[in-house]
Write a structure and sequence with these properties.
Keywords: Coiled coil. By secondary structure, the chain is mainly alpha-helical. The protein contains 2 helices and no strands.
Amino acid sequence: MNNTLEAIHLLEDKLKSLLSNYEFLKNENQILLQNNTALQHQVLESKQELIAQKKDFDLLKIAKTIEGSSTNTKDTKLKINTLIREIDKCIIQLQE
């Protein structure tokens, strides 16, 4: 009878320990999920900022070429032609 009671108490202690560990891990998981979400948001913002900076750089290159710099003339002409085609596509879509 005594061994049975000891086994039951030991089982209860182990269950309490498991429940405690479960709650700790559950809380830690929640914190990690929040951190993950925050980091994903930061990555998305960084990507958007990088895209904006690349566009600004391209515009600066175009402006420098138009200004008289001969280094990126071909690239600028190609970019202007691409922009004109995109504008033409938009106009066609608006007319439909």
